[in-house]
Structure formats: structure tokens, C-alpha cells
Design goal:
single chain; alpha/beta; 15 strands; Mito_Persulfide_Diox
């Protein structure tokens, strides 16, 4: 069994997108793909998603799953566009998946149940080719947040960031600094050699290292590195100190630039709203980007 992980950074939103493959059987999954959107012009494009499709085609992968770690508030997901394009290329239609906690998020948006092909309960297992994947609930940033454990790799979404970036905000509906602290401790309890692949990276100006992708953004660090150096949740950090700092920090943050647009798409499983939404300008939509019924 051979595993491959391709990390693709989308710089406008700082999002890491991943393709995880069982290279022996050429089966793979996509994690947290980005649909490009210009808020000022209302133009939607698929440059980032098409880069993923090119990688998939070059390796001859069959995609079984398109996996979301949570309902993102800072970018639109390309899950349904990728599903449509891949369904044209391969016999198997990939499933768009997220954690079962999405129902709590959907409740705040009008009960959009059934928007996803599959919702994972905490602790559930599934396969990508011959690779076994396990779902872990990692609430705090959002209540629906999950991570994916695949081999000795954990795709953490926004439940923990690289040590010099540290942690994500918790002020969205259902968010909790207490829960985020608990989720970080759950991750730091894994063996120290395990790799934690983050959902975003916003490289500090003084970062010395560069990733293997040739950019300043770094897709992963190890559990051991996080325990030693994460400036918010390293070993020895007390719950009360973290909650106080995170709460005070969140109180001074502005909303993500694409919050309204992202939530209207992402709680629908990657489909655009069927009717106009105030504050969500759409002037151009590529073929294969679907709207909700």
C-alpha cells in the first residue's frame, strides 16, 4: 500500500487543498477545495479547482470522496463543480461529505438538510482505495468541524494552525474557545511523529523556512513540533489562559471578507443559491457550477 499527499495552496484565502491517494489502486480523495470568487465583480472562476483536476488527470486517479472539514466562512467550496467534472471522466461519482454537525450550522441558515451526499458521525471509518480513514470531531472553530486521520497524517482543517500561526477564531455561531482547546489537546495526544495538515496558512513575515511546495506557506508540522512550539496551545498552556486570550482576540476581529457568500454556498454542499441573495453578487458562473433546487 502506497500513500501520496499532494498539497495545493490557494493564496487569496490562504487555504490548503489536498489530494490524498492510494497510488497502488489509483484511488484518491480531495479535501477542502476552493472555488474562486471575486466579491467586487461577482465573477466565479474555477482556476484553483482546475489545478486539482489537472493533478488528478496526470496521475490517472479515480476520486471516491470530496471531503469538507467544516462549513468554511472564508471561501466558497468547489466540491460540486469537481463532482460534476469528475462524473464526466470516471465511472464512479464521488461523494461530497462533511461531519454530522453540519445540521447545527444549517439550522442557523434555514434547515438545508440533505445538502450533502454523506455526513460522517464522530469515529466513523471509510476507505480511499485501500487507505483507511477515520473521522474525528474537532469542534471549537465551528460546531460541525471534523478532521480526517489517514495513516500517520491528520487533516485538521481549522482546528489547529501551524505553530507560529497557532489557532483559529471561535466567534462564529456555535463556536467555542473551550471546545477548540479540547480539540487541540485531542490532536496533541497523537504520536509525536504524526503530521498535522492544516486548513490554512498565513505565513508571518519573519518565517524563516519555506515548504516543499516552494512557497512560504507550510502544509503541515508534526505533533511533536506543535507540542513544543504552538504559541497558543503548546504543552503547559492552561485552558483558562487560552480561553481568555482567544475570546479577547476574537472580539477585535472583523468578519471574513467572504463570510456571507461562503456560508450561502457551503451549507448547501457547494451549490449556489437558486435565487438572488442580498450582498452576494453573481455576474458570471462557469458551466458545471450548480445551483440549489
Amino acid at each position: 500500500m502506497t500513500q501520496s499527499i499532494k498539497s495545493v495552496h490557494e493564496p487569496f484565502t490562504g487555504t490548503w487543498q489536498y489530494i490524498v491517494a492510494d497510488t497502488r489502486y489509483a484511488h484518491a480523495a480531495i479535501i477542502d477545495p476552493v472555488l474562486d470568487y471575486d466579491k467586487e465583480t461577482g465573477i466565479i472562476t474555477t482556476t484553483s479547482a482546475d489545478e486539482l483536476l489537472d493533478i488528478i488527470a496526470s496521475h490517472g486517479y479515480t476520486i471516491s470522496h470530496i471531503l469538507e472539514t467544516h462549513a468554511h466562512a472564508d471561501h466558497l467550496t468547489a466540491s460540486r463543480y469537481l463532482q460534476a467534472k469528475l462524473a464526466q471522466r470516471q465511472q464512479q461519482r464521488p461523494l461530497v461529505c462533511i461531519g454530522q454537525g453540519i445540521q447545527q450550522v444549517q439550522n442557523t441558515m434555514g434547515q438545508l438538510y440533505g445538502a450533502f451526499d454523506h455526513t460522517f458521525p464522530d469515529g466513523s471509518d471509510f476507505h480511499i482505495g485501500d487507505l483507511q480513514a477515520r473521522v474525528i470531531h474537532l469542534p471549537g472553530h465551528t460546531p460541525d468541524h471534523i478532521g480526517y486521520v489517514i495513516g500517520e497524517n491528520i487533516f485538521t482543517g481549522d482546528s489547529i494552525f501551524n505553530p507560529d500561526v497557532s489557532s483559529a477564531r471561535c466567534d462564529f455561531p456555535g463556536g467555542s474557545a473551550t471546545d477548540l482547546y479540547a480539540s487541540s489537546q485531542k490532536l496533541l495526544a497523537f504520536p509525536e511523529n504524526y503530521r498535522l495538515y492544516t486548513g490554512h496558512d498565513y505565513p508571518p513575515k519573519d518565517r524563516a523556512c519555506k515548504s516543499t511546495e516552494g512557497s512560504e506557506a507550510v502544509p503541515y508540522t508534526t505533533v511533536g513540533e506543535q507540542k513544543l512550539g504552538n504559541k497558543h496551545v503548546k504543552v503547559g498552556t492552561k485552558l483558562g489562559d487560552f480561553v481568555k486570550w482567544r475570546t479577547e482576540r476574537d472580539a477585535g476581529l472583523s468578519d471574513p471578507k467572504l463570510l456571507r457568500q461562503a456560508m450561502h454556498v457551503n451549507v448547501r454542499g457547494g451549490r449556489l443559491p437558486a435565487s438572488p441573495v442580498e450582498g452576494f453578487k453573481i455576474t458570471s458562473v462557469p458551466e458545471c457550477v450548480p445551483s440549489a433546487a
